[in-house]
Amino acid sequence: MIENKARKETASRSARLDSVFAALADPTRRAIIERLSRGEARVTEVAGPFHMSLNAVSKHIRVLEASGVVERHRKGRDHILSINTRSLDEVDGWIERMRRYWEERLDAMEHLLRELNKDRKLGPKGRKHGSR
Amino acid sequence: MIENKARKETASRSARLDSVFAALADPTRRAIIERLSRGEARVTEVAGPFHMSLNAVSKHIRVLEASGVVERHRKGRDHILSINTRSLDEVDGWIERMRRYWEERLDAMEHLLRELNKDRKLGPKGRKHGSR
Questions:
Q1: CB-based contact B25 A26, cutoff 8 Å
Q2: ipTM score for this prediction
């Protein structure tokens, strides 16, 4: 039962990663996130700088809302958009994990290169001096 | 001219982000990256754990190669896959930038909450004691 629950959680986390990564795979949507990272804003404020119709921007906003990256609340007549940082934390966590792996590998490679360089500097000539 | 070059570079970086994020928006492709983060591997080794045809896995690998996340080289008869860390660094850089923004905002919010809490603890009664 517990295993089943864990599997369901992993599946839903994976589905969330799918939709967040898909949401980020568009320059307009990334620009909207960049704007909202500096502070919440009204839909019209967000749409302002884009050379496209309000309707087109609204579609992008809906994709961001569906992925959970962007949240909307009402303040009187205004629709205010803000970032749900938790959703991006999850993506960040995944990339961070991958990065740890590959940094370990890069460190190992760097170490190897240093060792090879040392050998080369000592060289056939250097080795004579270096042999103790 | 320089401005034009800078614009082109920004556009191509943006296109790369598009395709890397789209490549990451799939659980099989993320699992392939996780596998390769632990070390390079042959195509058949990568395909092994998946309950799908080699052809289906190969399609996912091609998407990863097109995005630049995965590279392929030949060692004799084998096709060896490895991760191109630079492509993920770029994505990581974007998320990192967003995170800096929102952490500043979260810090500011936390500070505000602490201040509000202090006020509440002092309260109408506490304030008498607290006023110096």
A1: no
A2: 0.74
